[in-house]
């Protein structure tokens, strides 16, 4: 999942050329794709067998309201997608996903480069089972979180209503450690798709991008509490609540970007019982009451109206028990509820292993 969000943040930060005309339409797109599963862990060697293939159906519309979000991001398309993927594996089976997506134009109106970002929920047909499917270390449950990035880079054929497009994508499935095993699975795929435009219309818009005020670059502060439930990397070790408190400073650099830096305090109850199991199995003597962690982080927020896409990287400075990695990342979404109050939905990752899905509520000073 973190690869998907990192690529989205990188591509969405590109400066886009302003334009004076835009095509307003409804459209329906049908893609077929063929790809390669990424073996990011040796435990997936048995699960990855042949090349996956699938179908992606998307319904798109363009909002032409002249607000800050549309002006900054060149009036992105938005809509809903359905994805079917056959992993072509007797271990992994199939997956079905429903997504909310946004499609951003890269460059000017005359080229066809587009980036689609999508996030949603999915269903896996053959998750891990100790007896019937013991080698599926990628997907530990039927219910999954999923995301994909699709980069459309060339149009093979175009008429008034029909376009034949090519694209490449990165597709991810994971249950974010609600239930282990949970290594997740990633697919790099090549697409060929037919796009049908319904009542296309070209309208003129005013170019207000240069008139958008840059926010004042004063340093402000925020406090946020996050919680949820998760399980250790040990299979069937039990799910327990966790609590995280974070205090950080932030500074708005421009209309797009906010830089952040601060401190995290982690109180993850699953780690207490994981330490007990390690002591019993390995004969060690770790202190089971000392399972808290403290980390320092820096980050970035990509602003879109009242929402922001969050990316952070941190280092655990207080680390009494070694668990996966000192380095951690956080990716997700922030929603500004009022002038001072905000909510977050984020994923904490230790290198390539997801640790938790965090639900947060914060306050800015």
Describe this structure in words.
The chain has an eight-stranded antiparallel beta barrel with strand order 1-2-3-4-5-6-7-8. An eight-stranded antiparallel barrel has the order 9-10-11-12-13-14-15-16. The protein is built from three helices and 16 strands. It has two domains: 2-204, Beta Barrel (Porin); 213-364, Porin. Residues 4-19 have low confidence and may be disordered. With 365 residues, the chain is mainly β. 8% of the residues lie in helices and 56% in strands. A hairpin with a 2-residue loop joins strand 15 (341-350) and strand 16.
Topology:
Elements: H1 2-12, E1 21-37, E2 53-62, H2 68-72, E3 77-86, E4 94-105, E5 114-124, E6 143-158, E7 162-174, E8 185-204, E9 219-231, E10 239-252, E11 257-268, H3 269-282, E12 293-304, E13 307-318, E14 327-336, E15 341-350, E16 353-364
Antiparallel strand pairs: 1-2, 1-8, 2-3, 3-4, 4-5, 5-6, 6-7, 7-8, 9-10, 9-16, 10-11, 11-12, 12-13, 13-14, 14-15, 15-16
| Rg over CA atoms | 22 Å
Measured by DSSP, the beta-strand proportion falls in over 45%
The ordered H/E elements are HEEHEEEEEEEEEHEEEEE
Shape: flat
Low-confidence stretches: 4-19
Name the strands of the widest sheet in spatial order. 1-2-3-4-5-6-7-8
Number of strands: 16
Report the CATH topology name of the largest domain. Answer: Porin
| Number of domain modules | 2
Largest sheet: 8 strands, antiparallel, barrel
CATH class of the largest domain: Mainly Beta
Q: Tell me the structural class.
A: mainly beta
Q: N- to C-terminal separation? A: 31 Å
Proportion of helical residues: under 10%
- Count every helix, treating DSSP H or I runs of 4 or more residues as helices: 3
The overall average pLDDT, rounded, is 86
Query: What's the architecture of the largest domain in CATH terms?
Result: Beta Barrel
């Amino acid at each position: 999942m973190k690869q998907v969000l990192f690529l989205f943040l990188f591509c969405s930060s590109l400066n886009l050329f302003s334009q004076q005309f835009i095509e307003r339409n409804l459209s329906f797109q049908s893609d077929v794709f063929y790809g390669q599963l990424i073996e990011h862990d040796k435990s997936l060697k048995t699960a990855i067998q042949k090349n996956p293939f699938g179908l992606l159906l998307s319904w798109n519309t363009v909002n032409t309201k002249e607000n800050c979000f549309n002006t900054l991001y060149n009036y992105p398309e938005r809509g809903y997608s359905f994805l079917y993927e056959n992993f072509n594996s007797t271990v992994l089976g199939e997956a079905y996903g429903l997504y909310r997506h946004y499609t951003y134009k890269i460059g000017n109106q005359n080229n066809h480069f587009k980036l689609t970002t999508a996030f949603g929920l999915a269903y896996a047909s053959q998750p891990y089972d100790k007896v019937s499917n013991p080698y599926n270390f990628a997907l530990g449950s039927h219910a999954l979180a999923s995301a994909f990035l699709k980069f459309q880079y060339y149009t093979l054929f175009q008429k008034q209503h029909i376009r034949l497009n090519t694209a490449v994508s990165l597709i991810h499935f994971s249950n974010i450690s609600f239930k282990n095993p949970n290594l997740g699975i990633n697919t790099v795929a090549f697409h060929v798709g037919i796009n049908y435009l319904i009542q296309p219309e070209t309208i003129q818009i005013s170019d207000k991008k240069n008139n958008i005020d840059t926010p004042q670059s004063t340093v402000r502060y925020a406090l946020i509490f996050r919680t949820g439930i998760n399980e250790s990397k040990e299979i069937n070790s039990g799910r327990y609540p966790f609590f995280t408190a974070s205090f950080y400073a932030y500074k708005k650099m421009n209309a797009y970007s906010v830089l952040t830096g601060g401190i995290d305090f982690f109180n993850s109850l699953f780690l207490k019982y994981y330490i007990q199991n390690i002591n019993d199995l390995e004969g060690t003597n770790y202190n089971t009451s000392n399972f808290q962690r403290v980390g320092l982080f820096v980050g970035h927020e990509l602003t879109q109206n009242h929402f922001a896409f969050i990316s952070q990287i941190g280092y655990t400075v207080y680390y009494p028990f070694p668990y996966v990695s000192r380095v951690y990342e956080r990716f997700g979404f922030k929603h500004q509820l009022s002038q001072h109050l905000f909510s977050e939905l984020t994923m904490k990752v230790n290198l390539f292993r997801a640790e938790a899905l965090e639900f947060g509520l914060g306050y800015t000073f």
